[in-house]
TrEMBL record:
PANTHER family: CILIA- AND FLAGELLA-ASSOCIATED PROTEIN 251, WD-40 REPEAT PROTEIN. It comes from the Eukaryota. The lineage of its organism: Eukaryota, Metamonada, Preaxostyla, Oxymonadida, Streblomastigidae. This is Cilia- and flagella-associated protein 251. It comes from Streblomastix strix. InterPro entries: WD40/YVTN_repeat-like_dom_sf, WD40_repeat_dom_sf, WD40_rpt, WD_repeat_EMAP.
């Protein structure tokens, strides 16, 4: 990054603090720049490795909860968790905000990922208590009416107005809360989210968001392998690997199906866990594809 593009300052990470968000550091190295983006509370630092200086990117009311970048490293996406939350799209070269999406979630964003083109973001909302009595009349007690819910939104920020929010859906008490999300590098409309014991596959299909929960049976029981922490698609394939807090790895693949009762989109999403491997004696909390 040329210093003439933006005004930079000297960086002392030790003095800047130690707060970190999910995916809190992202490598933006390219032909145009040698920069790294780091989340540091309610702002992020765009650090230039050549000049050893940085720019503060400000715009969030709350602490940044998650961050991701486009595959071409031209765009940065940051989100926060709390009241009056927002998602901001930044130009990675200049540090200038390009678009802001506000108040789409009650309590902000837990995790997000962008497709390979960097145009559509799947966001997992922060889980919060929801009162079912607002929607149903047959609730017998106040305790029964309160459940946990989690909203999911796909946002195509390259579009304007209401058309940019591609689709929304919610998971309620009978479905597990999801805490991480990754994109399929070979399919621009597919994402996968990870819960403690479940993996959910999503397809941004037009103005709808289709989901399918991966299956695995007894081999995925948490007392055997622990709880899921994070997942990743393997390079240039549709295989997915999920790791656990007890050091296991779970490999997911497609289900062979000739059923005519389901759409091709749903069949394409369906996955089954076909291999479980002990990878480490301790928990694994980060996994990324190599090569």
């Amino acid at each position: 990054m040329k210093s003439s593009t933006i005004q930079l300052q000297n960086l002392s990470i030790a003095l800047e603090g130690t707060y970190f968000a999910q995916n809190c550091v992202q490598n933006l190295f390219s032909r145009e720049s040698k920069t790294v983006i780091m989340a540091m509370d309610n702002y992020s630092l765009l650090w230039d490795a050549t000049s050893q200086t940085y720019l503060k990117l400000r715009g969030h009311n709350n602490a940044i909860s998650c961050m991701t970048i486009s595959a071409d490293r031209k765009w940065i996406f940051t989100a926060d968790r709390g009241v009056n939350s927002c998602v901001i799209v930044w130009n990675a070269l200049t540090g200038v905000p390009q678009k802001v999406q506000t108040n789409q979630f009650d309590q902000g964003v837990t995790a997000m990922a962008t497709n390979r083109a960097g145009t559509t973001i799947l966001m997992c909302g922060e889980p919060c208590v929801f009162n079912l009595s607002r929607e149903r009349q047959n609730i017998r007690s106040e305790q029964e009416s309160l459940v946990m819910k989690q909203d999911f939104i796909a946002w195509n920020w390259s579009l304007n107005g209401s058309k940019s929010v591609v689709s929304t859906t919610k998971l309620s008490t009978h479905q597990e809360i999801q805490h991480a999300v990754v994109n399929n590098p070979t399919d621009m409309s597919e994402f996968a989210t990870t819960g403690n014991t479940s993996l959910v596959f999503w397809d941004v299909l037009g103005r709808s968001l289709v989901m399918s929960v991966g299956s695995g049976g007894d081999i995925l029981r948490p007392e055997k392998i622990g709880h899921f922490t994070q997942s990743t698609y393997t390079s240039d394939t549709d295989l997915v690997v999920t790791v656990t807090d007890q050091g296991w790895g779970v490999v997911w693949g497609h289900v062979a199906s000739n059923s005519s009762n389901r759409t091709q989109h749903l069949i394409r999403l369906e996955r089954v866990a076909f291999r479980v491997v002990k990878l480490h004696n301790f928990g694994i909390h980060l996994i990324i594809p190599y090569g």
